[in-house]
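sorry for the late reply, my laptop died twice this morning and i had to redo everyting from scratch. anyway the thing you sent over, i finally got around to it. pasting the sequence first so we're on the same page, its 274 residues, then the predicted structure underneath. double check i copied it right bc i was rushing
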Amino acid sequence: MDEKAVLIITIISILVIAFLVAVIISITYQRVHKKHCEYVEAHSNKLVLISKLNAEFKFITLDRSVDYYRELDNKRAYDQFNFYNFMLMLVCEKPDAFATRIGYVRYNQSKYNEYDERFEAIVKNDTAEDLENYRQFKSFKTIELEQVKQQKQNPVRCLDANITIEYTSPKGQKWYRSWITYNEDHIAAMIQEANKIARHKKTIQHERNLMNPGLRYDVLKRDGFQCVYCGATAQDGVKLHIDHIIPISKGGKTEINNLQTLCDRCNLGKSAKL
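ok and here's the structure:
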């Protein structure tokens, strides 16, 4: 065997030995560290107190965000996309669900402030027993601090709604993407607006339901069975409608003083105008 081959074998042997030594050191360290961790876990007064604190504070488990994605069909729709109206539409569809999530988030917020104060007090307060453990075992405090950090609860304390839109040109040559995030304060304001819209719709439906055949006849009779704008009657081939002078959509009531007879042509021209 020549010198070059001997040198190569020697180098490989050294590398193998070095690797094995490193593995042995790593395994030994892990075993020793595990024993140290077990010792700290068994003797740490802080970990006991934190375990009791965690048992006392039960936070609500939540996803930190809700995500919505829309792929748009054309560039114009992409350019004119209204994020606010889209988010408001989602809230209007499920206002109670969003309100519940915000309630959970704010519950976690309120409880976490007290939890964090008490947690930090435990960490900072070194009892005589703690000091004795630190004196006897140099790594005790370092290992304890690592375990304490792992035990700290970190509940979701905010709610984000992420909306992402995308558009890709027909040939795939251009790609556009935009996004926006609404936090729980934005969503809370939208819930109020959604409830307002719902109440308004309910009012409109209620007013429409008040129109009955008897009231319709009274208005027609009062107006002489003719359009109050152009004077047309059913004999002229028009259809007579009962119109709200102040539209329901603008707060008008279904009362005889707010009703008038219009032919279909005049009614179409007036629409929801005052």
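The chain has two domains: 44-199, 210-270.
thats about all i looked at so far, will dig more tmrw
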